[in-house]
Design brief:
The chain is α/β, with parallel strands linked by helices and 242 residues long. The protein has seven helices and ten strands.
Length: 242
């Protein structure tokens, strides 16, 4: 694990985007694993700028998102498909048929999860996985648990996560209580992982995840076992590291 500490969110976003852009330029065809949430937004803006101003070519890229709220349609303003379209996918030369987000309206969510994992396997797995982290250490929507779940699955969101995401809805009551999320087996099989965290409010859980025991109680701690992970933190997020 390589840990890079940068001054602020802007520098974090630039460094993350540059690493993703290098993956695209060097590999030609690449499979990107993408994340939602506030932290990746700056990196996505920089990728769009590099597409518009520097000719970064997404035409041979396939993408798979980590998760989606269960019960939200793709065109719902708070769905993660809508988020990704607005913040990256519709602004670059991606083939939208090659961009994948779990189907939040699937009648059989378990079948949808199995289908999602099969699509990733058929692609040869994720080449480069971008990850953020929630306030309780979750990655994707893999919440603190008694064990690590390997496959993409339907999860019940914790009160902590629901309250943290309530700012995007009119109230916490409107936040979906379940989500479809990529499992740890898929994430850990990615060839490379880029883990980005910003903000003082996550400093304690960053230290626990990166320097504490590997435990499903802190889901992001499993990244200590990944063969090739780069962590980018701003100074605030890194402030409690030993």
């Amino acid at each position: 694990m390589r840990i890079i500490v940068v001054k602020n969110y802007e520098e974090l976003s630039k460094r993350a985007a540059d690493m993703m852009a290098s993956q695209i330029r060097v590999e030609g065809h690449t499979v990107l694993g993408l994340a939602t949430g506030s932290t990746p937004v700056g990196a996505y803006k920089e990728l769009i700028r590099q597409y518009e101003e520097e000719g970064l070519d997404f035409s041979n890229v396939d993408t798979f998102n980590l998760d989606e709220y269960y019960g939200l349609a793709p065109d719902h303003p708070q769905s993660y498909r809508y988020f990704m379209n607005e913040n990256l996918l519709s602004h670059v030369n991606l083939d939208m048929n090659r961009t994948h987000v779990p189907n939040g309206l699937a009648k059989d969510p378990l079948l949808e999860c199995a289908h999602y994992d099969q699509m990733i396997e058929d692609m040869g797995g994720i080449d480069f996985q971008l990850l953020g982290m929630g306030n309780n250490g979750h990655i994707g929507f893999n919440e603190p648990n008694d064990y690590f779940i390997a496959a993409t699955n339907l999860v019940n969101l914790t009160e902590n996560t629901i309250n943290a995401n309530a700012r995007f809805f009119n109230s916490a009551d409107e936040v979906p209580k379940q989500a479809l999320t990529m499992g740890f087996g898929v994430i850990m099989r990615a060839n490379k992982v880029l883990f980005v965290v910003s903000g003082k409010n996550k400093a304690k859980v960053v230290a626990e995840a990166l320097q504490g025991n590997v435990t499903p109680k802190i889901p992001a701690s499993i990244l200590q076992l990944h063969k090739d992970v780069i962590v980018i933190l701003d100074e605030d997020a890194a402030s409690e590291l030993k």
